[in-house]
Amino acid sequence: MSKILEGRILTPDGWVAGRLHFDTHIRSVEPVPGLEGPLVIPGFIDLHCHGGGGGDAMEGEESVRTLARTHARHGTTALLATTMTSPVEEIGPALDGASRVVAGRRPNEARVLGVHLEGPFISPDRLGAQPPYAIPADLALMAQFCDRADIRVITWAPEADPDGSLQAFLAARDIRVQLGHSSCDYETAAEAFARGVDGVTHMFNAMTGLHHRAPGIVGAALAHAEHAELIPDLLHVHPGAIRAALRAIPSLYAVTDATAASGMPDGDYRLGRYTVRKCGNGVRLDDGTLAGSCLTMDQAFANLVSIGLAPEEASRRTATLAADYLGLADRGRLTPGAWADIVVLDADLKIRSVHVEGESIDLDHA
């Protein structure tokens, strides 16, 4: 059955006052000059999401479904369930659980597109909030992981793969390789980009920083990266650093790095093997280390607008560029033939309604 939304519709060609006709897919955009109404924008896409609503992706299928429901209520229409650097015997069952969600979306859930494998092939010296189970590159193990789930993105450190064999293996499978959780220097990072590394995991965090005589991974990313993800909760990265990255990295896109604490009150939650504490805008380990976030994509969008981005640019950074990064021409844009993944915002950028593949999400659904 065809549905209609009215308002200011963000199309690939700009804002159109009119009516959006859709069922599971966008059918047409009907201009109606002078028609006023809310902002109608593409649904948000989150390529780095560990949890939400009390659910952690490492806990299996039902927890992945919990996080998918939670983030759908905040406008995320598609996401990657993201793992932790854990013992191999824990990663496998987590991949199995995520795979079952990928195979079958249920009502009120965001579409889980696949998995972001964060580790275990990272540096033990730059774990951030990752548990201490980093291991060197292992092609046989990676092949087993690929057999258990549709892995779309991996966070990887060059020092875990010094001959680049894992990077080449992943590239051959069209898995996006992101540099992150690494202590390598500028030269090593620049070489990795030259070899075809696709992006950067949570830009500025858990990597060597920028100094004018030791540019580090940050410097290499600013100089060479086409794509990078960034957590715009205004806690992980200062607004000034966000703006610098926006000028330097053409396809910088927002992620949440959300934990089970997203959408929940202050308190203690699971993040893989760790217990983390949510207090206000932050989620931390006992020693004060930032441990993911409690961000949702509607807040990420609002934060980008608050630091000066136009709403249409904030939408590009929270939807379109992430879809493009995964090669998805049918998501992240409101154009005929694309999936009807839609967010409607009021003048204060608050969620009015969310549609995932045409389904109206119950914003009160737990």
TrEMBL record:
Its EC number is 3.5.1.25. Keywords: Carbohydrate metabolism, Hydrolase, Metal-binding. One of its GO terms (molecular function) is N-acetylglucosamine-6-phosphate deacetylase activity. Residues 39-349 form the Amidohydrolase-related domain. The keyword Zinc-finger does not apply. InterPro entries: Amidohydro-rel, GlcNAc_6-P_deAcase, Metal-dep_hydrolase_composite, Metal_Hydrolase. Belongs to the metallo-dependent hydrolases superfamily. NagA family. PANTHER family: N-ACETYLGLUCOSAMINE-6-PHOSPHATE DEACETYLASE. This is N-acetylglucosamine-6-phosphate deacetylase. It comes from Inquilinus ginsengisoli.
